[in-house]
Amino acid sequence: MGALVEELEPAFLPDFCRVRSIVLVILMAELLAFILALSSIESWQYFLLKLALISVFIQWVALINIVVLCLGRAWLRALTPLSAALSGSGLNLVITLLVSVITLWIAPVDTTGHFGENYSESIFILRNLTVSAIISAVALRYFYVQHQWKSNIEAEARFRIQALQARIRPHFLFNSMNTIASLTRTNPQLAEKAVEDLADLFRASLGQRDKVKLSEELEFTREYINIEQLRMGERLCVEWQIDENVPLNTLVPSLILQPLVENSIYHGIEPQTSGGVVNVSIMRRNGFVIFTINNPLPQTIPPYRRKGNNMALDNIRQRLKLAYGDKSVMDLRKNDGKYVVSITLPIEELP
Fold first, then answer.
1. Could you please report the per-residue DSSP string of 272-331?
2. Residue-averaged pLDDT of the chain
C-alpha cells in the first residue's frame, strides 16, 4: 500500500452519495461476481445459479459500503490522507466479515460452497476477506489515480484561463490608450478622467479570480463603455436589456462580457460615420443565463483597419469550454444586417 498512500490528498475518495458513483460501484461489483463465478465453473448448468449467489453476496457488501462511505464522507474528509485510506479499507473488511457471518448463519454450509468445493466456515470467511482486501486496494489506487488526473486537468485549466485572460488585457489596454491619446489634444480634462477610469478598471481586472459575480462584470463593462463614449461621443449608443429575474450574484468567467462589447464597438460602430447602437441583452431561461450582444454590420470597412479580430471570440470560446465543458453554448451569426453573439451559461448562484 506504500505507493497507494504516498502523497494522497484529502479529497481523493469520490462522493459515494452521487448516483454516478453508486452505479459505478454496482457495475464493478457485478463484474467481479461474474469473474468469480466463471473462474469456479464446473458445468454451465449451474453457472447462472452460482452467479446469482455470488452476485447477491457481493452486491450486499457493495451497497453497505456505499451507505457507510456516504454517511461517513464528512468524517473521512477530516482525516489525514493515510488515515482515510486505511479507514476505508478497514470499513470494507468489517462489512465483508459481517456479511460473511450473516450468510453462514442464514444459508447452509454447502450452499456457501459456491466459491469452489465445500469449504469450511473459516476458509469461506478468510477467502472473502482476502478478495475484499485485494479489491479494496485496487479500488483505492484507482480512485487515487483518478483524483490525481482530475487535479492535473483542473490545474492545467486554471493556468490556461489565466494565460487567456492575460491575452485580453494588453488588447484592452492598447485600445484604451488610443482613446486617451485621441483626447489628449482635444480635451485634456476628459483625457485625465479617462486615465482615472482606466486605473479603476485595471485595479478590478488585475485580480486572479477565474469567476466573478455578474454585477461586477457589468460594472467593469460599463466603465469600459464610459471610456469609449468619451472618445466617440454621440456616435456610440449602448442599450441594455437585463431581465429582472437574472440573479446578479451568479458567477460568470471574468472578462467575458467586456471583450464582446469591445468587438461590437470596434467592428460595428467605429467604421460608420454616423455611429450606431450596440444592444446588450441578458436573460434568464430555466437554469441558464443568456448574453446576447449585437451591432450593425458596416457597409464598408476602411482599408486602414484590420479586417477582423477573432482573438476575443476564440479566447472566450476556449474559456467557456474549460469552465463549463458542454454545458455552455456560444453562437455567432449575421441576421438582418446585424452581427449577433449569443452565450448561454449555467447559473451558479451564490448563497
1. STT-EEEEEEEEEETTEEEEEEEEEPPS---TTS-S---HHHHHHHHHHHHHHGGG-EEE
2. 79
